[in-house]
Amino acid sequence: MPELPEHAVLLRDIERTSSTLFRALGRDPVLRVAAGRTDLGAWRDEELLCLPQWLAAFDDASLNRELYLWFVALASSFEPPVDGDWAGANEAAITRVLRDRPGIAARHDRLLAAFAGDVTRLHLNPPPGASAGAARRVRLRDDEDDDAREDRPRRTDNITHTVKMDKPAAVTEFIRVTREDDGESDEVALPPTTGAEGTSAGARVRFDVDTPSGPHEDIEVGVGIPADEWDYRKRVLLPGHCMVQEFIGRSAGGEALPERLHKHAHKLRRQFAALVPQRQWLRGQPDGTEPDLDAYVRLHADRIAGGHEREQNLYIAQRNRERDLSCMVLADLSLSTEARVSPAQCVIDVIRDSLMLFAEALTATGDRFGLFGFSSQTRAQVRFHHLKEFGANWDDAARGRVAGLKPGFYTRIGPALRHATSILERQDTSLRVLLVLTDGKPHDIDYYEERYGIEDTRMAVLEARRRRIKPFCITIDREGSSYLPHLFGVNGYTVLRRPEDLTARLPMLYAQLTGQA
Amino acid sequence: MTEKDRELPYYEPVGNEIDLFERAWRNHLPLLLKGPTGVGKTRFVVHMAARLGLPLYTIACHDDLTAADLVGRHLIGEGETYWNDGPLTRAVREGGICYLDEVVEARKDTTVVIHPLADDRRMLPIDRTGEMLRAPDSFMLVVSYNPGYQNFLKGMKPSTRQRFVSLRFDFPSAEVERSILVGETGCSEDVATRLVDIGRQMRVLKNVDLEEVASTRLLVYAARLIHDGMDPVEACSAVLVEALTDDEDVAEALLEVIRASFG
Q1: In CATH, what class is A219-253+264-272+324-513?
Q2: Where do the DSSP E strands lie in A377-467?
Q3: Of A17, A73, A470, the CB nearest to B260
Q4: Which of A238, A266, A460, B14 registers the highest number of CB atoms within 10 A of its CB?
Q5: CB pair distance less than 8 Å for B263 and A485
Q6: pLDDT tens digits in sequence order for chain A, 517 residues long
Q7: Domain locations along chain B
């Protein structure tokens, strides 16, 4: 990024506020704010508002900030035109905003005056490129090669054309970006197309990374279990739309805890042991269910002996904290977990170690727990790996299954969550925690990507909650904060900046989740 | 409006809830109210108790609430112990309404004591004194809980739930909420309209940016302060924004929503 003037305002600093505001004003929880290239101005399509990564239209930071907020307010009343008349749509939206939101009028006037009356500077642009899908690809890239150009397309009735004529570079940029996206690892890449376009370039790319994890190593069990999927466009739950295939990992003859994890495991076991509750009667309390006769006799004897009046703590209370819970850990085993997090470690290594250590630690609490993993290959096969069942012991065979984990395929979270929910639901405890470890967004090579996958996952999370299961997501996708609140709710997830931190963060997270912190 | 109505605590009915409550009471059926926080469950019970002319015992349930807290316990006096009725026992003896607010917050073993009261036995056994109380006809048990509450971990035992007639409360429609604000605080229609609009915008954020959303109660608080002459943006900031979030970015967004309405 080129050196920014002092008065520039970065979207990064205002992003959370903007997206919350966008949702509130638009009254649609699905709306999102995304970061775009600075030369494209502010643009929106049906589901997202793309704001430039930074704004320096004025040499006054507070005005630049107001301009961001203006775009958010305008976008919330904006309806993308069917006939391509973006100028008309902008004018209609401005009229609506000023009418419905009297508080915005002053801002509008200030900004308009600062733009010397040029109202087009307050307009939203159409999405770059022909399709919304193509447009979304742009935000994958930073615009490091672009300069501090804040000028938006000038007054015109068809801004789309203006963009193309003014900026041939921008158009070729798209194409290049698309190709780069293809070649790079797919774990942070947004699937570039949605819905019916699912067979285009984006889908082809997915085939390239589709290397099987070696199913011969796992034992397929059963004939498959149908799972539902939520279609947000039709707003219906498609019953039995996906097929969950269960696998039992083949343990390589059993394995002890790796030597390098011993020290860490020992520490975690000690920390987790502190979570084990004590059930005890406390004597001599100021309040309680039963009289404490011993205390009373002592008090009485003191009185007769003419001793000092002591505090009248004459009751017995029971501190009664049962630990009545089960915890399922569901790990993402998709191919993207093969990505490196450091020269020595891949995501999958971190997941493997975390599962090992977590299991060691949970054994110390006596809580019921199960370890499972998932990946997917279209809706026909959602792969669900049983690593350690709830009833089973955490033994060398189970450790062997975890040690043998290999990444493969894609991330269809929704149906996997539903299947996990049904397993967890059978655990007869009052608290049921579903801990999802993942490294990225929901996606699969059929149509399961972008909003479709996100909506389905969100629905699966809501279903789990309705069944009194507490889902919580731990992710290492740094872009996670743009979609995770929507999926798991404000307190339902955490983004790890360094995956290596997972093992260190686990005890605290677990204590919070199970209400003991 | 009869003389009696005028003395009742203000309550704006949204459906057939008053009728249902009265029928449940006449037929000796316990009642379960469910709905989000601040939509008027407690107010409704207070209103109904006054309407029926019954004493009301309200118990806010929590983790440490024991059966003894409900039923009663022996206290120690000068040289002897004596029995002290808990609120549930008192409600039964007097034939009043016992209202257990947020009943899922209570421990499982606590809620079991209401079972024999909640079915057709209508009995309250007091183990420690050997008494067996029969509830008079006018006694009624009412419990409430908030299904959307983040603390869904506990839930309510099905065996407890199935003893109740249930009534669902939700955020009132915009018109009803407006008339509640005007009725409760005497604020202007315009202020009420804007507050209701702000409330509805914030409710969209539930489970995404906010854990809890703006209840009618909070809107009433804001209306009250504005009616008292406080600056609307400041009043909403203190009552709504700070009550709903600790996150500065989200707070900033909520404040923008308020500024957009009030300027």
Answers
A1: alpha beta
A2: 382-388, 431-438
A3: A73
A4: A460
A5: no
A6: 557 788 888 888 888 889 889 988 887 777 778 888 877 888 887 778 889 888 888 888 899 999 999 999 999 888 888 887 888 999 999 999 999 888 899 899 999 999 888 888 899 888 876 343 333 333 333 333 333 333 333 333 333 332 333 333 333 333 333 333 333 333 333 333 333 333 333 333 333 333 444 444 567 777 788 888 888 887 888 888 888 888 887 666 667 788 888 888 888 888 777 776 656 677 888 777 778 888 888 888 888 887 776 667 888 877 655 667 889 999 998 887 777 777 777 888 888 888 888 888 888 887 889 999 999 888 888 889 898 998 888 888 888 888 888 888 888 999 999 999 999 988 888 788 899 988 877 888 888 887 888 889 888 998 898 888 889 988 877 677 777 888 888 778 888 777 667 767 777 788 777 765 3
A7: 3-168, 174-262
| CB A379, CB A409: distance < 8 Å | no
**pTM assigned to the model:** 0.62
Sequence ranges of the domains in chain A: 5-143, 219-253+264-272+324-513, 280-319
Distances (CA, A) of A217 to A213, A250, A321, A404: 9, 6, 43, 9
- Closest chain B residue to A105, measured at CA: B263
Nearest chain A CA: its distance from B186 CA (Å) = 23
* Predicted ipTM > 0.95: no
The answer to whether B249 faces chain A, any CB pair under 8 Å, is yes
A486/B257 Cβ within 8 A: no
CB contacts of A465 in chain B (<8 Å) are: 152
B158 contact residues in A (CB cutoff 8 A): none
Strand partners, A434: A328, A471
Domain spanning B3-168: which CATH class is it, in words?
Answer: alpha beta
The reply to whether B161 touches chain A by the CB within 8 Å rule is no
Q: b/e per residue, B80-109, with b = 16+ CB within 10 A?
A: eeeeebbbbbebbebebbbbbbbbbbbbee
Distance from CA of B84 to the nearest CA of A (A): 11
HSE-up of residue A70 (Cα within 13 Å, Cβ side): 25
Would you call B76 and A296 a contact, using CB atoms and an 8 Å cutoff?
yes
